Structure formats: C-alpha cells, structure tokens
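Give me the fold.
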Amino acid sequence: MAVGDADVLVVGGGPTGLLTACELLRRGVRVRIVDRAREPTGVPKALSLWPRVRDILADLGVGDEVQDTSVPVRAFRYFSDRRPVASLTFTEELAARQLPQYETERILTERLHALGGKIERGVRLLCLDDVDFSGRIEPGGTVTAVLEHEDGGGVERFTVPFVVGADGAGSAVRGQLGIGFEGSTYEMAFALVDTYIEGRLPPDEISYYQTTNGTLVVVPQPRGVFRFLSVMPDGGEMSREAMQQIIDTRGPHGVRITEPVWETVFRVHARRATDFRRGRVFLAGDAAHVHSPAGGQGMNNGLQDAQNLSWKLAAVLQGRSPLPLLDSYGTERAEATRRIVRDTDLHTRALTARTARRAAVRDTAFRLLD
C-alpha cells in the first residue's frame, strides 16, 4: 500500500480490531488492518456476548448468524458447599449468549471481506513515527507506522491519518506511545478446561460452585461443550485429572470430563491504560484494559470501544464533526472501563473468599440478590 491508500491503520486482528475495521468500512472510511499472527485464533477464549454488543453486531448485519450459532444463558446459579444460595434469571432479551471467540472472529472476518476489507497477517508493528506526544490532534496531521512483513516482504513505512492499537494486553502500540498500564495482578492462578462431558448439566445456565478452597465455574457453550474454570489448588498443577477431582469434590455430581478441546492456566489482571489516546493514535480492547473474566465483560468492553471510536473517526474524517469529538472517546470509554474493572474485581474477590467468615458474608450478599 502507498501513502494515502487508507485513512485508518488498525493494528490487531482480534474481535476489537475486526469490528473497528468493519464499522469504518461500512461508513466509507478506507482501512488497513494488520496482525502479527499468521493464523486466526483456533481456541474458544472469550465467550459471552451481552445485549448491548449483540445490538452492535445486529446493526453491522451479523446479528442473525450470532443468534443462530450461539447458546443463551438464562440464569446464573450460585452454590456454597454445593448448597443452592441464589439465582439470577434473565429474560431472552437480557440474556448473554455464549459463542467461542474463534466463531465471533470468523463472523466478523466474513463481514470484513463482504465490505471489501482483508486482514494482512504476519505483519508486525516495529515503531511509530511522527506521533504528537502533546496529545493534540492538529488538522492535516499524520502518523507513520514502520511495519515488518514476516513472509520476506521486508520493512515498510506506512503513513496514515489515524492509527488504532487493538493488539492485545501486550500492545506494541501502547508500548510505542509510552502509555502506562496501571493496576494489579491477582495472587492466584486460574485453570480452565473446555470439554465434552458425560452426565447432565443445564445447557443454558452458568453455575458457580463456591467453597473456601476455591470456586468452580461451569459455563455452557454451543455443541455440548462446557467450560470448567477454577482457582488453581495451592502448590498444585492443573491437568484433566486435577480438574476432574475439583468437579468431584466441589461441583455437580455425576459429571465426567470425556474429550477436552482446550486447556490453559492463566493469571488475572485488573489494569487499564493511563490514556486511551496519544495524538492521532488510539488504544482499544485489551490494549487499553484487562480485567477479571467474572461476568464475561472483557470482549464486550473491547467491542464497545470499537463501535464508539469508529463512528467518531468516520464523522471527523468525512468532515461531519470537528476534531475535538475524538477527545470524548477516551473520556467515555475510560469511565466505562473503570466501572467494569471495579465490578469484576468485587465479583472475583467474592468468588475467591478463602475464610469461613468471608464466605458467610458473600453468601448473605448473594441471597439478598435472589
């Protein structure tokens, strides 16, 4: 591509980057989207799609496919030492729907192609030049991205009016901007197994089995797959056998892991960027914020970043709104993120209560919600 071939460079081809590119393209904005990974993700990762995001996807024209390929979650069930404590039920309109991230990315990629876009894979951002570190957006300005093509295509300099960094928690864009990533990391590690099962589990409910030894979360997915998520045992290592033992001692009776499709161990962070913009470069999705998976808000927050930023960029680039409109992106999304980080942190700390007194306080609070 030559200078002037795009109005916005999107770095990162995950859900946030894909939606950003789609929203811009459908508004007539020329977009280039690059990702350093050679292949799209093949694992489930994020699952939940809440109503606001489903509205955004429906407006994009992919709502029916999301509906057809996902499963609803009509209730959250909370247990303490296997005894029912509380239930939160949802109407069809308010229920989250569960869809593996690779399916969300597939749907968005197909929409991107239909809009005339494509992802350039194996392309890595090396650095950004001509960034205005004063924070101002001057009329007529540009940013130059230095990109490396891993397929032997060499290194290129690509100049564009705006750049969006949607390149994940380890964001190269955020690093180039020198923007801090403030927050903390939880002391405990979490283990996750997505698997087919033997036995019966509700196909439309998320269950929280809480004990002072840790909480086991059970999440339904399409095609009969279930996610089992638990705090790692102190000093232990996670395996299929270890997760089965957790299910047997804390979780639903009569359920056996039969065919795992994904297993991972991870730590949970609660962090957000100190700024969501530096000059003509923006951060979105995990590049701007990460937090606990409690409540399934992570990908939703990033997709709402994408929608908020895209229509504003389009309005400014097409002369329908003044440049200061872009200042509102960081203000609005930082406040939304602050609330999500706060709420998911409270939820996570409740689920990881390790003393009988804290567990009793937690159970009482959940009963009040019932």
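The first helix runs from residue 15 to 25.
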